[in-house]
Fold:
Amino acid sequence: MWMNLSAAYGWWLLALVLIGAELMLPGFFMLWIGIAAAAVGVVLMVQPLLSFMVQMVLFTLLGLVSCFIYWRFVRHAIDEPSDQPRLNRRAEQHIGRRYVLETAIVNGQGKARVGDSLWLVEGPDLPVGTTVEVVAADGSTLKVQKGA
Structure:
């Protein structure tokens, strides 16, 4: 009995290691394998006389089942399109907006006042004070054209 109880603790320790590894290297795979290891530990608490071979087969089956559950049900909930696709792409949020050039665009580069800050802009050479429209974003650089 004591030996099988320690086997349950071993499976739980493996589960903690796998879930901890998931925190370090996110990708959702090790999380589900860790859940399978924890489930084997629970089964050993209920049925402590399982041989090591049966434990390994059970771990393999539970790992496959948990990965299938992730693939079939959870992954789709995570990958749903956002109602705000540009939420973490701040420069892209400015596409279609108009701003006034703070410094002239010379050799394709200048700066425009966006709120209380200056943003680097790229586009055709234009003088200071020209209204420009943002047509694209490249990193934190706004691609502009002369606005109406």
